[in-house]
Amino acid sequence: MARSLKTVYVASIRRTRSKRSKNMSTNAKFTVPGLNEKEADAAVQALDGRMVALIDLALTLKHIHWNVVGPNFIGVHEMLDPQVEAVNGMVDNLAERIATLGGVPVGTPGSIAERRNWSDYSIGKGLVTEHLGALDLVYSGVNEGHRDAIAKAAKVDPVSEDMLIAQLADLELFQWFVRAHLESSDGKLATVGASTEEEAAKKAANQ
After folding, report:
1. What is the CA radius of gyration of the chain?
2. Which residues, listed in sequence order, are joined to residue 189 by a DSSP beta bridge?
3. Are 13 and 48 in contact, with CB atoms under 8 Å apart?
4. What digits encode the pLDDT tens for the residues 158-207?
5. What angle do CA 104, 108, 114 make, to 5 degrees?
6. 155: nearest Cα among 40, 74, 30, 27
7. Dihedral angle at the C-alpha atoms of 68, 58, 196, 146, nearest 10 degrees?
8. Residue 201, CA distances (Å) to 105, 126, 161, 173, 187 in order
């Protein structure tokens, strides 16, 4: 199955909401001054989708850190841990913003698995180029999802919008770090045209 890291949409959140206990609802009955409950709920939903995606991203980065092999192993191995740390910080900021808005950030493993709409990262032990090719596709999905969430947050809450914009700047920087290993001297990217992690890994390995 092709991996597609997109924003978790309202319908998905509502399905999950029905499975939770009463003390795990998406929104409390209050929010910050200047926002009404409808606006706050829309912001919480946008932030919740990104929180799920970034929790998944941090785990995926750590999985790659453990399973990458081959030439340039140590450089890539050591490149990934700062990204894990930064992404975990983003998760914490999103969760605290959700709580500030009167929402309930739910980060339990089962709930995260229910709320995501993509499959697990599909590469096990692999060469540096294979993992970085697949990771480029992962970052593309995460970053596209952040842009979608920014557009939604912009309509209701500029503070949440600003937070997402700052995160996207770092996420795009991390993707550039990955792409620097996949780019040729004439500016061609090895993963262009790939639609699955396996395809991206194969293209990168054959560059």
Report:
1. 18
2. 183
3. yes
4. 999 999 999 999 999 999 999 999 999 999 999 999 999 999 999 999 88
5. 95
6. 40
7. -150
8. 34, 9, 33, 20, 19
**Alpha helical stretches, state H, the chain:** 10-17, 37-67, 73-100, 109-115, 128-154, 158-179, 197-205
* pTM to 2 decimal places: 0.85
Nearest one of 123, 120, 121, 131 to 69, comparing CA atoms:
131
Tokens linked to 184: 């040729």
Sequence-distant (≥ 6) Cβ neighbours of residue 121 within 8 angstroms: 3, 60, 63, 64, 134, 138, 197
Residue given tokens 């557009």 in the structure block: 151
Query: Which residues, 6 or more positions from 82, have their beta carbon under 8 angstroms from its beta carbon?
Result: none
| Residue 161, both tokens | 């919008």
